Amino acid sequence: MPEGDAVYRTAARLRGALDGRALTRSDFRVPRHATADLRGRTVLGTQSRGKHLLTRIEGDLTVHTHLRMDGSWQISETGRRIPPGDQVRLVLANARWQAVGVKLGMVDLVGTADEARLVGHLGPDLLGADWDPDEAVRRLRGSPGRTIGEALLDQRNLAGIGTIYRAETLFLRGLWPWKKVGEIEDLYGLVSLAQRLLDANKAHAGTVTTGDRRPGNQTWVYGRAGRPCRRCGTRISRGEMGARPQERLILWCAGCQPR
Asked: Rounded to the nearest 5°, which phi and psi values hold at 22?
């Protein structure tokens, strides 16, 4: 699933193509909004909210989308061929550019005043103007018996972290993923590091947490299961966290992140 930095870049691309331009086409290919018509309305802006996207339209309307696992927004010149089949969920176009939402996991059209109904449950956005490490720590501490690995992926605590940044942040802090939240002394340092990692990657594709952009050298543990740790040489472990059917991939170094 695209993480907060990737969704942030997607919002920037949508802003570049749609902001300030009147829509000449709006094609909602989801049953409950199939008759919606936004033609003639100006796009006011798009912002990311964790892993969610909010595109605000003239007339106090908001198009809410979520990429889920396989979704994407494809930007091209208006008139270019749109992929056939049922994978396209939404098309927004103006006289110059078209944005095609493919395999989107969520598509909603709501009043702008009702956005909170869709994203109000989210914690502070690691890449948003509302980022507040103290609030993120407060929310994490609300479940002291929960594992830190599960708590970091709960978007109600802090919004934007996925499996990549969870693994990399916990490695860099030397924390075993199954350690309980209440046993961690410096939660502020943990969430602040996660925010710095996402912020450092928000302007470019790919995730680099080692400082080395060469292929195969970008991460400490993610994507390196079974390979030696870059620090201590211990073989990187791979497992799953969470209750079925919500298990999510986790990678860690037993040497650097001792139980």
From this structure: -80, 140
Write down the catalytic residue from 41, 179, 180, 248.
Answer: 248
pLDDT tens digits along 193-245:
999 999 999 999 889 999 999 999 999 999 999 999 999 999 999 999 987 77
Which fold is adopted by the domain 4-119? N-terminal domain of MutM-like DNA repair proteins (3.20.190)
Which residue bears the tokens 């909603």? Answer: 108
Is 117 an active-site residue?
A: no
Catalytic site includes residue 2:
yes
Task: Give the model confidence (pLDDT) of 164-202 as tens digits.
Answer: 999 999 999 999 999 999 999 999 999 999 999 999 999
Using the 8-state DSSP alphabet, how is residue 237 labeled? E
The domain spans of the chain are 4-119, 133-253
Quote the pTM value. 0.94
* Among 2, 124, 133, 177, the one annotated catalytic: 2
Catalytic annotation, pick one of 51, 56, 139, 224: 51
Q: Catalytic site residue 150?
A: no
Separation of alpha carbons 9 and 4, rounded Å: 9
Per-residue pLDDT, 84: 77
Is there a catalytic annotation at residue 77? Answer: no
Of 197, 54, 194, the closest CA to residue 124 belongs to 194
- Name the class of domain 133-253: mainly alpha
Q: Which residue among 3, 49, 89, 124 is the active-site one? A: 3
